[in-house]
Amino acid sequence: MTIDISQFYQVFFDEAEELLAEKERLLLAVDIAAPDAEDLNAIFRTAHSIKGGASTFGLNDMSEVTHVLESLLDRIRKGEMSLTSQHVDAFLAAKDILKMQLDGHRHGASVDQEAVANVRMMLHDLSEGVIVAAHQPTVPSFLHAEQKQEVREGAHRYKIELPDIPQRDVNALVDELGLLGRVSVTPLAGGRSALIIMTHEGLDDIVAICSFVLNPEDLKIFEAPPLTPEQRAIEALERARIEDEQGYGFFDPNEPAENTQAELSNDERGYGFFQPIEQIRLEAGIVPETPQPAVAVQSRPEALDAADAAAEKKAAKKAADAAHAHAEAGSIRVSIEKVDQLINLVGELVITQAMIEQRSDGLDPMVHQRLLASVSQLTRNTRDLQEAVMSIRMMPMDFVFSRFPRMVRDLAGKLGKKVDFITNGAATELDKGLIERIVDPLTHLVRNSIDHGIEMPAARVAAGKSESGRLFLSAAHQGGNIVIEVADDGGGLNRERILAKARENGLPVSENMSDAEVWQLIFAPGFSTAEIVTDVSGRGVGMDVVKRNITQMGGTIDIRSAKGFGTTILISLPLTLAILDGMSIRCGDEIYILPLGFVVESLQPARADVKDIAGQGRVVKVRGEYLPLVPLHQMFNIAPRFTDPAEGILVILETEGRKAALFVDELVGQQQVVVKNLESNYRKVAGISGATILGDGGVALILDVAALLRSSRQLTDDTVVS
Amino acid sequence: MSTQQTTKPADARDGSGSEYLAFTLGSEEYGIDILKVQEIRGYEAVTRIANAPEFIKGVINLRGIIIPVVDMRIKFKLGTPTYDQFTVVIILNIGGRIMGMVVDSVSDVTTLTPDQVKPAPEMGTAFNSDYLMGLGTVDERMLILIDIDRLMSSSEMGLIDRMAA
Amino acid sequence: MAKTILAVDDSSSLRQMVAFSLKAAGYQVVEAVDGQDGLDKAKQQTVDLVLTDQNMPKMDGLTLIKSLRGLPTYAKVPILMLTTESSDEMKSKGRAAGANGWLVKPFDPQRLIEVVKKVIG
C-alpha cells in the first residue's frame, strides 16, 4: 500500500507561507541589542518547521536554504553566537528567497537561482565565524549525522577526491552534499579528504554543489562500486561499536528474520529504540500477533489476560470518545470552492425566498394568516443565514496590512527617507476575494506616498515638519461599505503641475475645476508628474490601473490633498461582491438596478429647472447646483415612457467627486439583490456592472454608475450656466 | 486546393459514427455535435442588453446563472424570426461557457458515419465555410454540419471578450 | 480493535500526513498541535502510542515525554520521538526523558507504519 503524500502539499504550502510571514514579523520586531529568548526560539522554530516540511515533501531547494538558516539560528538561540543586524538582514533575505522558492513550487513562478546562491553564500559566511565541532577529519568513515535520506535501489556511489582546501570548506561540502544522499569522509594522503556519497541524484547536482567551493579543474569525481554486503556489515559493526562506547545501543530482535543480508542499523533506517521491542510491547500490555522467539511473553498468561481486558475497556471508551477527540483546536481548513458553492446556494435561497414573498403578497392576510407568518419567519431565517455565510469569507484587513511594514522599511531605507508606518482598523473585515484584489492597488498607493509624497528628512525639517514622515493606513466599515484610507503628511499634490500635465496630454481642463476634479486627473492613463521617474513606483501608469482595479471591484476612489500638508486617498468598496442593496427603476419596459450606495436622493424636477445646453444635452438645477442630466433611455436605446424629465423621475447619483441626475421613468422599489456576473457566460457590457435575478425569475441588469457618469461627460460640458 | 479541413466532433470513440442534433433554420436543416448541447428549452422573456447587436437578444436566467441568448435567424438572415410556443432555444455548453441559441425547431439526434459526411461547398450557404464541418446525408435529408464551437467563439459573434479589461 | 495513536507536532502538514497514513493503516489518530495540547489530549483518553515532535511552542517534546511518564496511565505507553537528527545528544536526552525510541524526519509514510506496527502491532 503506497500512500500519496502529494495531497498534503497544499497544506504545507499554506503552512510554509504562514511560517515565513511569522518569521518576518518576528525578525522585524526583535531587539538586536537584547533579544528575547522566547523570540529567538520562535524564530528558530519557524525555520525548523519549514525545513522539516520541505524535506518531507521533497522540496530540496527550500530544505537546503533552511538547513543553514536553522543551524545559525540554533547557535544564536543557544547563546553560542550573538545576533547582529547582519544576521537579521541575511535572515530577511533568506525569507524572501524561501518565499520565491515556495511560489516556484506552488505556482510555477520563476526562481532567481543567482539570488538563491547569493543568500546561501551570505549565510555560509555568517556561520564561518564559529567553530563547527561536529566534523573532524579523524571521524571514522561512517554515516554522517545529518543524513535523512533513505537510499533505495538504484543509488549510485561516487567518490569525490578533494584538493587541499580548508577544513571548513570540507565541512560545508559535507553539509550540502548530505542533503543529496549519504556522505562519509575518508582521509587521503597529504592531509586531504575524499567524500563518498551514496545518492539517487545526478552527477550534475553533485558537481553544482561542489562548484560552490571548488574550482571545476580541482574536482575529481569517480563512480565507486556499491559496497558489498560484507563491507556494509563492517560499516554497521563499526557504528554499533561506537554507539556501545557511548553507553547505549539499538538492537532490534525482530529484524534477523526479515534481513538475511548484513544487518542495517537503525540509523540507516532512520529510527531506533532504546529497549528491545518486545520489552516495550510487553510493558505496554500489547499482545504480540505472532509467536515470538522471546519466551518472556508466553510465561505470564495472567498478566496478559488482565492487559487484554484493560485494552478492551480502553477500546470501548475510545470508540465513544473518537468523535470528540478528533476535533482539532479552534478552526478547520475548507477549500475556497466549497465556500463559494455555499455562498451561491444561499444566494439562490434568497432569490427563492423573495419569490415566495412576492407570490404571497397577493394573498388575503386574514385567510392565510399562518402561511404568511411562516413566510416572514422564512425571510428572517434566510437573512440570518445569508449574513452568517457571508461572514465566512470575511477576513481581517490585517492580512493586507501586515505586508507593509517590511516593504515600508525597505523602501524608505532605499530612498533615504524616514517613515513612521501606522495602521488602524486591522481587524476590519473584508470579503476574501476583495482582500486579494486590493493588495496590489494599495501597494502601489503606499509606494507612491513614500516615493512622491513624503519628503526627504532635510526638506521636512526645513519646512518645519518632523524628520520622519507619517504614513497612515486605515480601514473601517461605513454603511454597506468598507472605507480604506492611505494618508501621508508629505508635500501634497501639486495642482498646477497636474493641470499643466493634463493640458499637455490633451485632456479637457479648466482653471475653474475644483480640487477634487483636478486630483481625479491623475487617474488618466499615462499620467505622471514625477520629475524623476524612479524605478520604485514607475511611470505613473500605476494610478489608472489602480483606479480600474478598484472600479472593477465595484468600488470608488477619492483623493484629498493640501499643498504642504499631505495627501489622503480614500477607497470605498462594497462589503461583499455578492449581495447589494439596490434601487430598482423602470425605463420603458425594462427594469434596472441602481446600487443604493451611489444614490443621494430622487425627485421629480420642475420644468423650469431643466435647461438645455445648446447641442450638448441638458442640465438640471438641484439644490442650487446644476447637474448633468443623464437620460437612461438615450444611453441604452430604450423607448421610454417619458421624454420630459418633469414627468419622469430623476435619481441623483454621486461618485468620484461627480454628481449627476439619472433620468428614468419611475422608481419601482428597493431590495437586496444577489449579484451575478455577466462575464462568466457573456462579456463585459459598457454601463452594466452585473446582473441579478428578480423575484419573478427574470433578469435585471445592474447599472455601473461610475461608468454612466463618466460617459455622461461626453454628453455635456462643464461650462454651466448659473 | 479542394480538400476541406473538417473538424470531427470528439465523440467518434468506436469510429462508427458521431451524433448530431438536427435543427431547422428557415428552409434548411443543420446539425451540431450533440456533446455541445446541454439542453433544449422553449423561448421565454429575455432581458435586453443595452446597445448589443440585434441578433443578441439579451440574457436569461437558467436555474440561477445568467446566460446570453442569440437568434441565429437574425444573425444569418434566415427565415423570419418569430417567437411563439413552438420557438426553441438550444442551450449550448462551449468550453464551459453556457449560451442559448434560438432556432425554428429541433428535429432529432442523428448518427452519421464518416462516409455519410461529404465536404461542404465553398459557397452557397448562409454560414461562412470556416464554420462548416461538412454536409451530412442520411436518407433523403441533407444536414449542414456546423462547427458550433468555432462559430460561437468567433469574434463576429462577439459573445466573448477578446481583450482583457 | 483499532489502536489509537496520539500524534503531536506543530506542523499541520506533517501532522495531517502522519494522521492520514496511520488511519489508512487502520489506526485511530488523535492530533495535538503542541506539547501542552498533547498533554491535555493524552489525559482525556489513554492512547496506545504517542508520537511527538521536539521543537514546539508552549511545551517541547522532551517536556511532554517527561510529563507523560509522570502520569500513572502513561508509565508504560510506548512513546516515540520524531526528530530531525539521530544525534547522540538527542538519543541520550530522549532516553533520559523516558522515550522508547525515535524516528528521524523526514520519513516516508511506509516507514512510519512499519515502525508503529513493530511497536504496537
Automatic annotation (TrEMBL), chain B:
Keywords: Cytoplasm
PROSITE patterns xrefs: CHEW (PS50851)
Protein name: Chemotaxis protein CheW
Residue intervals of the CheW-like domain: 17-157
InterPro entries (alphabetical): CheW, CheW-like_dom_sf, CheW-lke_dom
Origin species: Massilia norwichensis
Main location (coarse class): cytoplasm
Pfam families: CheW
From TrEMBL, chain C:
SUPFAM superfamilies the record matches: CheY-like (SSF52172)
InterPro entries in the record: Bact_response_regulator, CheY-like_superfamily, Sig_transdc_resp-reg_receiver
Gene3D superfamilies the UniProt entry points to: 3.40.50.2300
Keywords linked to the UniProt accession: Phosphoprotein
Sites of 4-aspartylphosphate modification: 53
SMART domains: REC
Domain Response regulatory positions: 4-120
Key word Phosphoprotein present: yes
PANTHER family to which the protein is assigned, alphabetical: CHEMOTAXIS TWO-COMPONENT RESPONSE REGULATOR, STRESS RESPONSE REGULATOR PROTEIN 1
Protein name per UniProt: Response regulator
Organism from which the protein derives: Massilia norwichensis
